[in-house]
Amino acid sequence: MRIVLDYNNMLAPRLGGRGIDPAALEGMAERFREAHADTQRRRESGEMGFFSLTQEDDTLASIEAFAEGAGQAFSDFVVLGIGGSALGMIALRSALLKPSWNELSDEERDFFPRIHVLDNVDPATIGPFLDRLELGRTLFNVVSKSGGTAETMSQYLIVRQRLQEKLGDGYRRHLLFTTDPEKGVLRQLAKQEDIASLPIPPSVGGRFSVLSAVGLLPAAMVGIDVRELLAGAREMAERCDTDDLRSNPAGLFAVLQYLADTEADAPIHVMMPYSDRLRDVADWFRQLWAESLGKQSTRGGEEVFAGPTPVKSLGATDQHSQVQLYIEGPFDKTITFLAEAEREIDVEIPSVYPELGELGYLGGQTLGGLLRTEMLATEAALARRGRMNMMLELPRVDARSLGGVFMLFQIATVYAGHLYGVDPLDQPGVELGKQLTYGIMGRAGFETQRAEWEGRAPKRDDWTSR
Q1: Cβ–Cβ under 8 Å, residues 291 and 430
Q2: Residue 358: per-residue pLDDT
Q3: In the chain, N or C: fewer CB atoms in 10 Å?
Q4: Cβ neighbours of residue 384 under 8 Å, at least 6 residues apart?
């Protein structure tokens, strides 16, 4: 079995005339060939390094050697990162580790460490968390390609101080940097202080980095089969290595979502897993889709203010909070169901009240069967009301399938970037925010920025509720 994309419910004949005209989809065949050719050119030029991550044998060997050697000395593994430096590993953790992993005993975890991802800088979280860690048995993985990410480097400085106070010169053994191989502050510190490090290829941006050392090292540390993860990604890349739109699942996903946005007035793209294990894949996808496609200007410099809005949802939970809107609200959304064909674990519902119709029908069923039935019912309800939806189904939630899903969405994103005419690899809006943070946190920068804002902003009393 392999990953299947069912897009019938995106097309007008299944939706009572709404949705995408099949002729429009067929009409995109030539534009998709151009998108595929452009992607191939940029891939061959070295711009799209995520394609090559499945062939990084030296880095993979280093990761496995560390995880199976020195890494075994630690009971806790902490990732310091944000955005693309964290979301991929969070998705891997949720999908491939046992539930409540950190609460399991050493034996139940097969003596792999507990894993924590600190992806924010709220002191109410960071302080108490560090207070209860046993620093002498903890490894901190600092993940920042540039080494200049304010949130991650703030965390690092705090952790470094605590380690030095507790362990003296031995603090170095409790740090590992994942960063650019040649430049940046973290690379400089790794050399100066003799701290272990792993490279992020220069041509791999943060949101495309889950299959690099960014995701693979933490995954290997907790026993996830990283070779299977890369094998699934490699299979998907090969499957998408065609300019025939109908044969390319990443191409179909990109083109359908693009047409939904630009031709069917549906700029909101909902990713809705019907699996707790896949819920954080939706969060990872949300960054990938938003940060890659939300752009003010095209690659040629023309202002377009382009980009669909990705939304995450969860079945069946959000049937009771969001689905009413999806079924009867504005026709401005597509819904992509993320499903698993085979469940590793299921739970039978006992037949306790067979005489009560409201409960009797549940007896003898399973929770997995109920969840799948609710997904199919929601799919049918959406279609009946003319709402575009499609289903991406994994044969099972395992490392190989997850690697395939990561690669599919990454390739779809660069195709979509071409269709919108924007560069899916940059993030100038994010960089602007970083620059302003840097300027304001500096004393002179703070005074300059405050004066500028006070000169053009309304007085606080004009807009603050008291």
Answers
A1: yes
A2: 79
A3: C
A4: none
Gap between the Cα atoms of 162 and 92, Å rounded = 29
Overall CATH class of domain 49-226: alpha beta
Q: Catalytic pick from 151, 235, 291, 340?
A: 291
The reply to whether 36 belongs to the active site is no
Assess whether 434 carries a catalytic annotation. Answer: yes
Lowest mean pLDDT among 136-145, 228-237, 352-361: 352-361
pLDDT band at 235 (very low <50, low <70, confident <90, very high): very high
DSSP for 371-418 reads HHHHHHHHHHHHHHTT--EEEEEESSSSHHHHHHHHHHHHHHHHHHHH
Query: Can you tell me the distance from the alpha carbon of 39 to that of 94, in angstroms, rounded to the nearest whole number?
Result: 31
Q: Residue 316, preceding bond cis, omega within 30 degrees?
A: yes
Question: Is residue 31 exposed (0-12), middle (13-18) or buried (19+ Cβ within 10 Å)?
Answer: middle
* CATH top-level class of 4-43+230-420: alpha beta
Q: Please give the order of strands across the beta sheet that includes 175-179.
A: 114-118, 76-80, 138-143, 175-179, 196-199
C-beta of residue 264 within 8 angstroms of C-beta of residue 388: yes
Residue 427: pLDDT band with limits 50, 70, 90: confident
Distance of alpha carbon 66 from alpha carbon 91, whole angstroms: 22
Annotated catalytic residue 291: yes
Residue type at 183 in one-letter notation: K
> Which residue reads 């007085």 in tokens?
459
Closest C-alpha among 107, 119, 48 to residue 280: 119
Report the run of H or E that residue 291 belongs to, with start and end.
helix 279-293
Average the pLDDT over 373-397 and give the result. 97
What's the pTM?
A: 0.93
DSSP state of 139: E
Report the chain's C-alpha Rg in angstroms: 24
Q: Which of 107, 182, 303, 320 is catalytic?
A: 320
**DSSP assignment, residue 426?**
-
User: Which residues have a Cβ under 8 Å from the Cβ of 176 and sit 6 or more positions away?
Assistant: 66, 139, 140, 141, 142, 195, 196, 197, 198, 217
Q: What is the mean pLDDT of residues 46-51?
A: 96
| Residues 43, 76: Cα–Cα separation, whole Å | 37
Query: How do strand 389-394 and strand 4-6 relate by DSSP bridges?
Result: antiparallel
pLDDT at 447: 55
Burial class (CB in 10 A: 0-12, 13-18, 19+), 455: exposed
Domain with CATH 3.40.50.10490 in the chain: 4-43+230-420, 49-226
Which tokens belong to 415?
């195709």
Length of the chain: 466
Torsion of CA 428, 312, 86, 112, to 10 degrees: -170
